[in-house]
Amino acid sequence: MDADVVVVGAGAAGVAAAIHLAQAGREVLVLEAADHAGGRAHTRTIDGFLLDEGFHTFNPVYPENAMMLDIPALDLHPLAPGLAVKDQPEAPLALFAKPGFNPLVTASTLVTAARQGMFSLDTARGALRWMLPAINTRSAYPFPGDEPDMPLSESLDRAGFPESSKQLLIMFFAGVLGEDKGESSATYAKCMLKAFTAGQPSLPVRGIGMIAEQLVHRAQQLGVRFCFSTAVAGVDESRADRPVVAVVDGDSITANHVVIATDAVTAADTFGSTAPAMRGLSTWWYAADEPPEGKHLTMDPHARGPLVNTVVMSNTNPNLAPVGKHLVQASAIIKNHRALTDREALDHMSFIWGMDPGHFELIVRDDIVRALPTQLPGREPRAPQTLRNVVFAGDWCHSATLNGALVSGRLAAGAVLRANNRSTMDATTPPKKS
Ligand SMILES: Cc1cc2nc3c(=O)[nH]c(=O)nc-3n(C[C@H](O)[C@H](O)[C@H](O)COP(=O)(O)OP(=O)(O)OC[C@H]3O[C@@H](n4cnc5c(N)ncnc54)[C@H](O)[C@@H]3O)c2cc1C
């Protein structure tokens, strides 16, 4: 069989690459191992609940998200701005404001921070100095004028954060970095903070799977063909000028170009790229008749259990639960491949919400060992890796978010088009939505 461009993987990166290539007039065939698109950003229906595979939020502030998706059609339900934290066991949750959002909540944040010994003039100065390069610029990543990249933990120490607020920030970032040692890139963490303060993490009305639905629909309108349940075993570049894609069932497809848009570990193990390692996350999904109160991302900064955050999803987006039921998620990082017990998660979650564990009934747990590519210091976004006529895409090529995956798809498409000497797009300039 013959094809112009084969894309391996129908996650956000692969479908974005397919859209850009099709917009430039190329014929694109997408081969996807699973029976659906979306990769890690997938939603299932279980017992009437709409459950993402692992807790996801969508932040419309990221430029590529806004450019590639019909944001109004996602009918986003924003989480409450800021964070809720469990301080003393008997005390109610304390709110940490999103800067500048609400003067009353900001005042209560300062009081809470002062009570916890997190706030002094020196701390405030250090924190501001630390955040300003990220918040005070229009550019994305890396930020001009910022300190050289280093591990987050070291960067917070240098800025003079006391142990309590350093711990709070590291626990907050653990949910988006997949680690709680502060070994990830401080620059990347600031980038996350910038997105969190400038935009509002939100829940699409029917779950994160809506992103892939929209992308696939757009790709199909442009003539992109999809083959699901079609795993690729490898790509052979040695036999001719044109790479040969070997499908697991024995078929092979000769193509002009191949875009490999799998997760980082598959890209390295099966397709020979130099991709980073990946970190794991677990999410427990619970049904409740009586929900805890609150619409914030909620966490225990003192790490008195394994969870990095918990959210009452249906308080923000009631469509995720059947009528009369409520949906709560609780997430933890997977450390050293040790799966936590359901009991450990339930006890910690009940403690955070101040409710009896009997209120919560486990629907399903997701253990995603390959959740997020590592974002170590100095690993900045870069040009797509290319092996002759094969180009790599995926969040690991740019940044560990849906936005990063979409950017990587665009950059990979640009590399294919340039390689073919038929470039109709500048890979650094986002094309207009069709
Ligand atoms: C639990 C969790 C929470 C997250 N939270 C957020 C969040 O809140 N906000 C955010 O922006 N991002 C979040 N992310 C990250 C986001 O989901 C990813 O960055 C993004 O989905 C990656 O897209 P991708 O296309 O690069 O890779 P993937 O989604 O992994 O897509 C790769 C595709 O390749 C397919 N594939 C693999 N091997 C083969 C093969 N041999 N042949 C054919 N097909 C193959 C896979 O089946 C998959 O469909 C989260 C991720 C996880 C796991």
Sequence stretches where pLDDT stays below 50 over 5 or more residues: 422-434
- Kindly estimate the percentage of residues that lie in beta strands according to DSSP: 15-25%
Give the % helix.
25-40%
The average pLDDT score comes to 88
Number of contiguous helices: 13
Distance between the termini: 30 Å
Domain Amine oxidase: 13-270, 379-417
Protein name: FAD-dependent oxidoreductase
GO molecular function: oxidoreductase activity
InterPro entries: Amino_oxidase, FAD/NAD-bd_sf
Give structural attributes:
oxidoreductase activity, binds flavin-adenine dinucleotide, FAD/NAD-bd_sf, 32% helix, eight-stranded mixed beta sheet, 434 residues, FAD-dependent oxidoreductase, alpha/beta, 13 helices, disordered C terminus
Description:
32% of the residues lie in helices and 23% in strands. With 434 residues, it is an alpha/beta fold. The strands form 5 sheets. Strands 1, 2, 9, 10, 11, 12, 18 and 19 form an 8-stranded mixed beta sheet that branches. Strands 15-16-13-17 form a 4-stranded antiparallel beta sheet, with helices on both faces. A 3-stranded mixed beta sheet has the order 7-6-14. β11 and β12 (252-260) form a beta hairpin. The protein is globular and about 70 Å long. The two termini are 30 Å apart. Residues 422-434 have low confidence and may be disordered. Bound molecules: flavin-adenine dinucleotide. Residues 13-270, 379-417 form the Amine oxidase domain. GO terms for molecular function: oxidoreductase activity. InterPro entries: Amino_oxidase, FAD/NAD-bd_sf.
